[in-house]
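LAB NOTEBOOK - FOLDING QUEUE
OPERATOR: T.R.
BATCH SIZE: 2
PURPOSE: Compare the predicted structure-token outputs for two unrelated chains run back to back under identical settings.
PRIORITY: normal
REVIEWER: second-year student, initials M.K.

ITEM 1
FIELD SEQUENCE / FIELD STRUCTURE:
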Amino acid sequence: MKNPSKLAIVIVGPTASGKSDLAILLARYFQTSIISADSRQCYRELNTGTAKPPASVLAEIKHYFINSHSIHDNVNAALFEKLALGYADEIFQQAPVAIVCGGTGLYVKAFCEGLDQIPPVPSDVRERLRHMYATYGLSWLQEEVRKKDPAFYRQADVRNPHRLLRALEVWEATGQSILNFQQQIPHPRSFQILKIGIQLPRKELHQRIAMRVKQMVEAGLFEEAASLRAFRSHPALQTVGYSEVFDWLEGKYSREEAIQQIIFHTRQYARRQLTWFRRDLAIQWIDAPDPDKALQLVKMKLSDLES
């Protein structure tokens, strides 16, 4: 049964749209904490390339699921669902409002609706596929999924090895598409949910992306990625910002070409994020990271719950 006095404010949108700044403002206003729904910010080793909030903000406002794991841990959406619901319970012990903020659509879905139960994958299957991926790379993984689970491949983010490996694991273990286990039946939550999406004109979003990449480079992205080169086969590091620097280290790009590739791939990622979130009709969109508009939506929701 839902508790009308508990509200999770879920802030979504494409990368560089201003989600974190809005979440921080709302957390200050409601004197509460933030749960990150970002599949990369949880890794302690990844800092510059994941746009984590500054240390001063992390010290001021408690953020869950940031710096909580190592790249050597097996982190996925199912684990996030379990942890995030526990985080929310902890927050609701202290405050009536919790903030969830992130651009990883599957993690947001896991928190709000839950995930379907997928049969467990034997450890030897998982280890074999991860070894094959580490040996033959992303192009091999993409081709395997395309051949064995074409229905999933057609709608997948084919640059995301986490998702591709998961689909291939399920196919190898069950002989069925992972889509067969995704029935889209929402799991009830014990709290209310308000989803706020941030959208920007494409030109402005592209400018913000280019500025963020520039800031990351100035803050030491190339140096951080170089220090992690030995772990580049880990799925956590097969992500925009790190992949391009690894290619630069191997001489595939000049430094400037690598920067432009990061900007280009980040724009592509932002487009995929928007495609995912626009399918969710429960999201209330605002045309900029507008604190006044967001507060208005939250106050209206709280008023509805009290009436």
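ITEM 2
FIELD SEQUENCE / FIELD STRUCTURE:
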Amino acid sequence: MMTRARPYLLTRSVVPENQESPIWFLHRLRFVPERYVFRRNHFPYPLRLPDRLTVRGLVSFPLSLSLAELKAMPAKTITAVLECAGNQRAKFSPPPFGEQWEGGALSQGAWTGVPLREVLARAGVRPGAAEVVFVGADEGLRPDMDGVFSYVRSLPLAKALHPDTMIAYAYNGAPLSLQRGYPLRLIVPGWYGMASVKWLAHIIVTDHPFTGPFQSIDYMYYPHPDRDDGKRPVTTIRVNSLIQFPLDRSIHRRGPLKVEGIAWTGRGVITRVEVSLDGGRTWREAKVSRDDHEPYAWVHWQWEWNADRPGDYEILVRATDSAGRTQPPHPLWNRKGYGYHAISRVRVQIT
């Protein structure tokens, strides 16, 4: 009796738990199953999970909401890509320090929850508000600072009030797992995953910029290896693509070969995916499958190659979005290795 092989998560660290999705083997999936979603943590899992969500600060009516109370509010479901800002960090040259993600710190699913602006409307945001701060229940030590820190991030008020920014309590129709941020987490479609705070415990409306270490030290683009001038915050996901088949360094018989994968962006939608076999001198357009009702979802693309000549080949793929952004030949190197989005490449041998 034959057993069907199953892919597994690739462990990058044990404590805190950081594991990559087997994204190369999840072909043509609209939703990544829970067991295959990547895991990105800064600290060990929280020992105490919040039983209520508080909203305070520059509001007229401070709130303390239970999960049941949030579920009683009007809900919405959004299909969205969730990508770690450090995804593909290992591809930078030289590789920056940090988790050496290759390409699997990436997933997509259906998130269900309450629009954040509905909760903020119930609290009554007062004039002068500038940012909204989100406090997670996870905490621990940082190697670069003394003391115990919680994972805390903020959003500009306009982004917090966007109709698709949500407090999620379900993934793919099931309650959030502990790994996904049970009981509540923030979901910020179009932004890298660091903005989507897990195990959400407190929301604080402020009249000034938040400067915690996960806001002002981490998740900043530092363009220089040894100085901080020119730094800017990591926010919107860059246009990107991934070749899921064929695998890098794989060998294939000559004949028809289907090249396929996914492409995604945080601004607008993917409008074109192109393939090159000659180092980028010429490009051929791939077929793109997109659902216009899901603007935050990745698209599937494929290109039929008549690989009739034996030899070694490098397949290049680049995506373009509706904002006019196209993947560049080389990544914009930065000291912490965020936002890798260079042209996708695999090498194959045709025999």
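REVIEWER COMMENT (ITEM 2): The helical segments are 67-71, 116-123, 157-160, 213-216.
FOLLOW-UP: none requested
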